[in-house]
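To: structure desk
From: M.T.
Subject: fold request, one chain
Message: Could you run this one when you get a chance? Sequence is below, nothing fancy, just the single chain.
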Amino acid sequence: MQWVFEAHNYALTDFLKERFEKKLAKLDKLLPQNVVSGEINLREDGQVRDKQKYRAEIMIMIGDNFIGAKEHGANMELAFDQAWDKFKLQLTRFRDRQKDHRGQADSKEVRLFGELREIRRRKKLELQPMYAAEAIEQMELLDHDFFLFLNRETSQVNLVYRREDGHFGVMEVKE
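Reply: Done. Structure tokens follow.
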């Protein structure tokens, strides 16, 4: 498996890269054969959040499914180790879910983190055409973390969401 490392505001040493690659190699037995590459993003944030200014993110795509983990730490090794542990758990859960749900119809129950949980509410939305800025205003008025809308510019369903850094993001459907 090939891992692509990207470092932003951080100088990744060969020693740390080798250490990270050695740890990532342990995931090979959990990954399906069709996954050939993954991405590691390392960043040193200028703003200190609880003195944890280093961020490590591990991401892969398995078919149409995105699996990722992101963690902050006081140093890059700590951030990476925590992200690796979280990623390994996410990957294990994904594999277990694939085994449990293969060929099953839509159900009212979902197994999450080993617990059986129930879908208790379904909403039908009438999507209104609006611009992203209007959708963000609606999201703020409703005090939600995300808002689904019909983009007036593209005539596609989009989702606006509040990011951890306080800014906003827009998710668009890939054509």
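Reply (cont.): The helical segments are 14-25, 76-101, 132-142. Let me know if you need anything else for the meeting.
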